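Field reference: sequence -> structure
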Amino acid sequence: MTTYPTSEHAARRASVAGLVLLFALAGAAWPEARAQATRAGPNLGYVYPAGGQQGTTFTVSIGGQNLNGTTAASFSTPAAVAKLIGYERPLTQKEINDLREKLQQLTDKRTAAKKEGGQSFTAEDEKEATEIRRTLTTRGNRQAPPALAETVTLEVTLLPDAPPGDHELRLKTPAGLSHPLVFSIGQLPENVPPVVTATSARDAVRPRLSDPRDRGTLEVTLPAAMNGQILPGEVDRFRFLARQGQRLVFAVAARALIPYLADAVPGWFQATIAIHDAKGRELAYADDYRFNPDPVVSCEIPADGMYTLEIKDAIYRGREDFVYRITAGELPFVTSIFPLGGTVGQPVTLALQGWHLPRPSLDITEPSRGPGAFSLSVREQGMLSNPVRFALSSRASQRETEPNDAGAAAQTVTLPVVVDGRIDRTGDEDIFRFEGRGGDDIVAEVLARRLGSPIDSVLTLTDGSGRRLATNDDWDDRGSGLLTHHADSRLQVTLPADGTYFLRVADTQKRGGTDYGYRLQIGPPQPDFELRVVPSAINLRAGATVPVTIHALRRDGFRGEIIVGLQNAPAGFALSGARIPAHQESVRVTLTIPANVREGTLPLTVLGAATILGRDVVHRAVPADDRMQAFAYRHLVPARELRVNVAGRGSTLRLAERPPVRFEADGTVRIRISTPGLRQVGALNFELLEPPEGLSVRRVQRRGDITEVELVADLGKIKPGTQGNLILQAYGERPGTAGAKDKPSPARNSLGILPAIPFEMHGSGSPRT
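Structure field:
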């Protein structure tokens, strides 16, 4: 959980100096490598423009690393198709030197031809020299971070009926399938300044929108979508004509496009926007929208004339992946709904607030939808509004009623219940009374920030005498991978005695208003779990095995084991070690596919099953990617699809005996592996991939087609009863080469991964001597 308070204007502005200092300490120049670029497969840094209009064809550039040989681009909607146009990367230093040498030779040849008055310098020579100069200018930039250095260009076509909203874009290369990037399909005409790539970012050929003169400002006609990239110190400007009395809405998407940057503080492009009139007077400014870092501005135009929109980074940073989209015009925008949810199978009418909305309310009927949160939008004259979140619960719900600010006026509720309430004014607080029995466990949880409400809730539980039993401000929900300030509150308490209890809901900063809605769930614990499967793109060869991480997000005290499996997978696809032991938050399993699988990409569904309070519970695992924010924080960012990409043939390794393995009192175990296909490998070795601390490979012995690997556990570091999976990777070694002063190190060649081996520690726990 980050400590960066995105929702508080004053806190952020006060911290700007600290952020600049932290950024300077981390390295004023961008690091040469980003943490997310360490993977062997393709790594995508940005796509620009990050969207387009329905029914149009346009060019986009994708910057990243390991993109050479890109063979395809795919979207999460069939209404978007892409054709590969080109690939570029910065020149190596040797290539730059060779081109400079060749250019010098051509220059000398031209000089000699002029002196001799001959025709030895031909038109072909001139053409070659021009091409070399162009290549050195556009691809000679050696300052670009490797994670953004390569560029793939696509021609994208969006069908007229392409569904508006955010979708996913991936690239496929010989090294595998990439993680997804957000790609938006819009309804408005697009305005796209020239692309900035790592090879062109420092060229003089790009018109700079930051030029304060009119020729450097892009003129647009509203309504429109505006796209751009921000470089260091840059301010982009767009000029538009507006009429007196118009209520214009400007909504920025920047962090929404690239949620986390590994090597930037606070961890995303922090955009600010301002609207100025023709005399330069500021009409509106925003550096966020409530707790969302992406700003939104709504302003009424005071007079007919030309106006300018400015966008920049809050502390004037910039780079090729500081990409943004702005939608602007008299557009429908929902600022809040109330209530924030309903009961499964029951219709509910929502009160709508916002700008340019078609009506003040919306009827929701979702008879077939189960519990959970989903997005909804409204249409006005064919235009789709921004999405807002709405939640359904299996518990009965009721509305909060005022006055309920004091214990004597507390609203009485009967548990279990979901209360739809609102902190509707500054300093307001809502108090609820319920009867409880001693020894009962009670869970009270606010669902608000996760549904888009600005409330920063605090919960306080007291007994009938006013004695405080528990309080909570923030509760970290690992399932909300796009939130950095987890402002929703949660309490779990064992009631000390029979009697009356009071639960108070308030905003920590005593703010309030009609937008400050919440859902308060009160009742006995509902043990449950969610699953995340990482990564969202699994790359492997036919017949091979690859590790996959399954995260268990446990709720309300559920600590039991979870069995993991595949749903409707192709024949021969198998998970090994497919069990999350009781009390554990994650496990690394392996996926093995048969040798006869065709090359290509296919979807995969992972399920988790558990027995909870005598009921069989099954949940689908949500695909996700483990992303780093600001050098330190990590988040599980959800993806729409889990995709498996098969390319080439791999080695099939298998155990000669069935797992699991048990470490007994001596702390050692021997694993027998069938290796007939590795007879030609000279020095065969094995290593453990990300083992628990204290586990290691002691020795490897080959006996014909069987290889025995002895593992040893430091019983002083590993507790008895520890369970999990061991993942062994085979590799061959051959003598290395080195200079006269260096000791040669063996060259290693990966030969494949074994299916996960479940293990359990049965040792005494005494230190090993």
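Note: The first strand starts at residue 43 and ends at 48.
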